[in-house]
């Protein structure tokens, strides 16, 4: 009786870095450029310390929310004065320029995105070449995965998600305040629509998170005894399919929202009013 030999477990010895013939470099290079540009813009704006609030229409950029510096009070733009601080101001004016006004939210938002499954894939490929693409050999000698320090910290993502939910609530509150008219009552401007659109997209990104899907529908033996959680799990699963898209779109919507508020707050442009 003949014996069948088990296949050798070593990797195929292929000299080429990859046998792929398509333009596999496009994704990591594009991602690298977009992420680098975004981080530079966000860092500059977070430390800028001005053009963050439009008192007349209550527009506050998401990069400064919640606004915690003393400067967030009595902001004057275009002859109108108002307070951007809705949650207190425990940062003294002297910290301007080296501590972001949104010192409580920005670190958590950064950690939330940094540990996001989508962003991990994106920056592992584009910044660490680990690997650059499927079926492309990586330059690193060994791979220890996310089970050891420092990458084991990626598992904290579910806790950063909770912080992101709280911050999204604050952003929602900011967007509601932006329905403010010239005479002090109800009003809508282009800034209102931009801030609302940004908040909707932020919620889609936050609620489509893989951790959220697990928090909502995980650890259950069967769904039939938990119809509400099953329904929520189904909804989260649906938007979860586009999580990567929301991750990218919200990078753009945050910049658009911040830039628009900065342009109006610096009196470079006037807000386009739709109602009052
Ligand atoms: Fe992307 Fe949680 S997996 S935010």
Automatic annotation (TrEMBL):
The keyword Transmembrane applies. Keywords: Membrane, Transmembrane, Transmembrane helix. It comes from the Bacteria. The chain crosses the membrane at residues 26-48, 98-119, 159-179, 185-205, 246-266. This is Succinate dehydrogenase.
């Amino acid at each position: 009786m003949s014996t069948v030999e088990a296949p050798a477990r070593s990797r195929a010895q292929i000299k080429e870095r990859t046998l792929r013939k398509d333009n596999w470099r496009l994704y990591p290079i594009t991602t690298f450029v977009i992420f680098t540009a975004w981080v530079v813009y966000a860092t500059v704006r977070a430390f800028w310390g001005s053009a963050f609030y439009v008192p007349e229409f209550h527009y506050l950029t998401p990069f400064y929310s919640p606004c915690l510096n003393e400067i967030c009070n009595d902001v004057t733009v275009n002859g109108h004065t108002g307070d951007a601080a809705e949650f207190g101001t425990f940062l003294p004016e002297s910290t301007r320029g080296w501590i972001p006004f949104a010192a409580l939210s920005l670190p958590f938002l950064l950690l939330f995105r940094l540990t996001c499954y989508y962003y991990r894939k994106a920056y592992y490929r584009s910044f660490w070449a680990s690997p650059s693409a499927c079926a492309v050999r990586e330059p690193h000698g060994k791979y220890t995965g996310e089970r050891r320090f420092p990458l084991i910290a990626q598992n904290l993502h579910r806790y950063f998600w909770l912080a992101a939910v709280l911050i999204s609530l604050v952003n929602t509150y900011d967007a509601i305040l932006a329905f403010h008219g010239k005479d002090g009552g109800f009003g809508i401007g282009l800034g209102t629509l931009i801030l609302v659109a940004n908040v909707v997209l932020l919620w889609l990104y936050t609620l489509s998170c893989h951790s959220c899907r697990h928090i909502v529908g995980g650890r259950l033996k069967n769904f039939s005894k938990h119809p509400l959680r099953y329904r929520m799990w189904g909804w989260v699963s649906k938007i979860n399919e586009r999580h990567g898209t929301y991750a990218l779109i919200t990078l753009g919507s945050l910049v658009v929202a911040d830039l628009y508020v900065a342009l109006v707050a610096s009196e470079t442009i006037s807000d386009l009013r739709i109602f009052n």
